[in-house]
Specification:
about 140 residues, globular, about 0% strand, mainly alpha
């Protein structure tokens, strides 16, 4: 009985993942937008080229991309960008600290974002109303 219920609900998993990942990026983007000069200075201190422009780019991707991911609009596009951001954070800033007490959150966000790249918008998304909406069709599977 429980397995049957979970099987019926499993198609909604992308919505939960989308909301969780999107909100985390949205909040972190908001913080960056409200402290953009400090973000730019930090980016410069770790060797990121064009640090102030990069700070604006990352802050906007995180804030606006996070919002659109929550809404299920262009999820694959924005989570692809989030994967790149997390790869840079892990390799440039956090790598030397190791996974435990180092980059575990960023690693989780990297894998979760990549999962959404594969899954697309999922159900309850506004993206399905856009031309070329990128939701996986119901009952669509990968065939060998």
């Amino acid at each position: 009985m429980i397995k049957s219920l979970l099987d019926k609900l499993s198609g909604y998993a992308p919505v939960l993942l989308r909301v969780g990942v999107g909100l985390i990026f949205l909040f972190h983007g908001w913080d960056k937008l409200h402290g953009i000069s400090g973000v730019g200075a930090f980016f410069g201190s770790v060797g990121i080229p064009f640090p102030h422009a990069a700070a604006w780019l990352v802050a906007c991707i995180e804030f606006f991309g996070g919002l659109l991911v929550v809404l299920g609009v262009y999820t694959r596009v924005f989570t692809s960008l989030m994967v790149i951001i997390m790869l840079v954070v892990i390799t440039v800033v956090k790598w030397s600290k190791g996974l435990h007490h180092g980059y575990e959150l960023e690693f989780l966000l990297l894998l979760s974002s990549f999962s959404l790249v594969l899954l697309g918008d999922g159900p309850f998304s506004l993206g399905k109303f856009l031309p070329g909406g990128n939701s996986i069709a119901e009952n669509e599977t990968i065939e060998d």
